[in-house]
Specification:
alpha/beta; 12 helices; ten-stranded mixed β-sheet; D-Maltodextrin-Binding Protein, domain 2
């Protein structure tokens, strides 16, 4: 299990101050980043301003929880809902939502995470508050730093569902994530009976020269986050090198073992393609000895795409870093009740069995709820992942990006 590291530069919130920002919606307060009825009042205080959920000194001060019926009544008056989403899963959830709650029209716009940040910032700065629900992945810590901390994206986690949510997504993360994926290596099952590598440094050996593919990290922040995390955790990479080759790593003009790994990958003929599907097409449609770095969730497309691929879920020193699909309500959402109702629907409602969760609970993705059974053979807690350190990623990613460009 991983936890997000908290930003130490922020002042620790007291219980009293936390309660003052629990009702951010409808207020022009950029420090407010949690909507009312968002989290249980027994959550611990946090040094992260995103987690405005300290214990209440006066439980009666907590706003009364809104029932589904109350939200639906208000949402029908609003009549519609605008969603900006990085994932097409929102469209599937919207279809079932509109059948469950007639009278509410859902409009979904698919936008990349970084483009969404720019779009929402420009709209809000112009006084245009268009979206209600934001479904986004991180952009090397920039979503939290530039959108959450400034109050453009607001955390919303219903009180009655929160006790079933796994940490860090209940009180420690920047928001609730309805599904978690990561970038990992895939191999062709018709070529290999089992995973052909166990260590990231295996990819730098002659056996895999010209046989490693990756989606382009310059156009996909989550891929860059993996390589940046290797740089941040360079001691782990150095230890894995020694385990693989039986000697200490010697740096060839690089700053640490993470950078050295990237450089040696390129020296060994790394092939960079546009996207994850392109990588899996290259290694999975015909018998191939090549390996590909792709999205864990893409394993669910095997039959649809005609692939014979399998993911590797245990690589030394760590398999990957989490890539979480966060839910937010946009600041000054024009259809707030509908937004809350839709988020509940996508979460599977209180018992986790609602139809709206189905598009998110797929093979290769993990739902961080204790009452929802994963469709994967391995639990999320069993995965060998690095911590997602948004603060370090935000500071380090530009340097790794520049280093990557120089290798091409």
């Amino acid at each position: 299990m991983f936890i997000s590291k908290k930003k130490t530069a922020l002042v620790l919130l007291t219980a009293a101050s936390a309660m003052t920002i629990m009702s951010a919606c409808g207020q022009d307060n950029k420090s407010s980043n949690t909507l009312s009825n968002a989290v249980p009042t027994d959550a611990p205080a946090s040094s992260n301003a995103n987690n405005a959920s300290a214990p209440s000194a006066d439980p009666s001060a907590s706003p009364a929880a809104e029932s589904v019926d109350e939200l639906y009544a208000k949402a029908k008056e609003e009549g519609k809902l605008i969603v900006y989403s990085t994932s097409g899963r929102a469209n599937d959830a919207a279809e079932t939502f509109m059948k469950q709650y007639p009278g509410i029209k859902v409009e979904v716009s698919k936008v990349k995470s970084d483009e969404m940040m720019d779009k929402v910032t420009k709209e809000q700065d112009a006084g245009q508050f268009n979206p209600d629900v934001i479904i986004t992945k991180e952009v090397s810590g920039a979503v939290e730093e530039e959108m959450v901390m400034t109050g453009r994206y607001l955390k919303y986690l219903p009180e009655d569902i929160a006790p079933m949510v796994d940490e860090p997504y209940r009180t420690q993360a920047e928001a609730y994530a309805n599904y978690v994926e990561f970038r990992t290596l895939f191999y062709n099952k018709s070529t290999y009976a089992e995973a052909p590598v166990t260590n990231w440094w295996d990819l730098t050996t002659p056996e895999f020269k010209g046989k490693v593919y990756t989606a382009d990290p310059l156009s996909s922040p989550a891929f860059m986050d993996l390589f940046t995390t290797m740089v941040i955790n360079s001691d782990d990479m150095a230890a894995a090198y020694k385990e693989k080759f039986g000697k200490d790593i010697v740096l060839n003009g690089t700053d640490n073992a993470g950078y050295e790994f990237i450089q040696e990958l390129f020296d060994n003929g790394l092939i960079v393609l546009k996207g994850s599907d392109d990588v899996l097409d290259a290694i999975g449609k015909a018998k191939s000895e090549a390996l590909g770095l792709a999205v864990s969730g893409d394993v669910s497309k095997n039959e649809e795409k005609g692939w014979t691929i399998a993911p590797i879920y245990d690589i030394k020193p760590k398999t990957s870093v989490p890539d979480s699909g966060y839910f937010f309500i946009a600041n000054k959402a024009p259809h707030e009740a509908a937004a809350k109702l839709f988020i509940r629907w996508m979460m599977g409602e209180k018992d986790g069995s609602g139809e709206g969760l189905a598009p998110f609970n797929e093979v290769g993705s993990w739902v961080p709820r204790s009452d929802v059974k994963t469709k994967n053979d391995i639990s999320f807690e069993e995965l060998n992942l690095w911590l997602f350190d948004g603060d370090a990623l935000y500071k380090t990613a530009p340097k790794v990006r520049d280093f990557w460009i120089k290798q091409k």
